[in-house]
C-alpha cells in the first residue's frame, strides 16, 4: 500500500451553492486556501486528485432513479415541489444535480484510492452530506456522498466498513441506508435529538434484524464542551471499532459542534476537534492498516471555525499535525476578510483550550454526559460482545 494521501479537490466543488443559505461554499474555499498557505497541500506524498461526477449507476446504488430525475428537473421548473426539494433547508439551485454528483464522485474517488492501495488516506472536505435519503433531500444535503462511497466500497469487495460521524447532527441518512447491512458499522456522536435536527440518533437505534449492533449512537446534552465530548468519544468509539474490526474507516468530520457555530449548542473548540481527528487517525492506524477516508460535513462559522478545523484535519491526514499556536498566514487573513467582511478572522490555529478529559468510569454520581454514555453502552455493547460496565471494553 502506498503511504500517499490523496486530497480530492477541484474548485468546481464550490458550485454546490444554495445561495443565501447557511451551507456556504466559502467555508471550503477558505479551508483549501488556508491549507495551501500553510504548506499542507505541498507535503511529500500528498496528491491532489481532480474528481469526476458520480454517474447514475453509482448514485443509484443509494438513491432512487426517480429522485435523480427530480434533482435534474427541479431547476427547470419554478413550481417544482417534492422529494424534499424547494424547501428553506434544500432550495433548488442551478446545476444542482451536476454539483451534487461531483461531490459524490469526489468521495467515491477518495474511497477507491484507499481501497485499491493507491493511498493510505484520502480526504474530500467538500463532502459529508450525510442527511440525504434514498428518495429525499434533507438537512442541506442532496446526494449522500458518504453512503454512495460506502456502497461503492461494498461493490469492490469490502466486508466490514466503519463509518464514524462527529458532526453535531446525527448521521441519519447513512444510518438509514445501511441500517440492515451488517457490513457497515455506523457510529454517530451528536447533540441530543431532543434538541436538534434531525430528531433521530437515540441509543436504542442499534441496527435492523440481522445487523444488530451495527448502529451506535451517542446523543449528548446541549452545552457539552471538549472534556465531555472526549470522555464520551473514548468511552464508546474505540471499543465498538475494535469489536467490529473494520477493514477501512470512513469519517464525517462536521465542524458544527464548535461553541461559535450558530446552528447548534455544543461548546467544542478547534483544539478539541483537532484532538478528535487525531484519535480517528490513530484508530485507523491501529485497526485498518491506516486506511482512512475523511470528509467534511456541517459547519456554519464560515471564517472563524471551519477553515481552521478542516486544515487541522488535512494536516493530520497528510502527516504531521499543525501546532495549535501556529499563526494564520497574513495572505489568508486578507482573503477571509475580503470574502466575508465583518467576520472575525482568527489569528492563530487554536482557541487556547486544553481538550484533556477524564476517562469514563461506571461509578460515582453520573453527570449528563455519563448518563448518555451509559445508555449507549447498555444498548449496544452486549450486541457486540462487550461488557457495558467494564471500562476496559
Automatic annotation (TrEMBL):
Listed InterPro entries: AcuC (IPR003085), HDAC_I/II (IPR003084), HDACs (IPR000286), His_deacetylse_dom (IPR023801), His_deacetylse_dom_sf (IPR037138), Ureohydrolase_dom_sf (IPR023696)
Ranges where the Histone deacetylase domain occurs: 21-315
Region Disordered, annotated ranges: 344-367
Protein origin, superkingdom: Bacteria
Pathway: Ketone degradation; acetoin degradation
One Pfam entry name: Hist_deacetyl
Keyword tags: Acetoin catabolism, Hydrolase
Family in the record: Belongs to the histone deacetylase family.
Protein name, UniProt field: Acetoin utilization protein AcuC
Source organism (scientific name): Micromonospora maritima
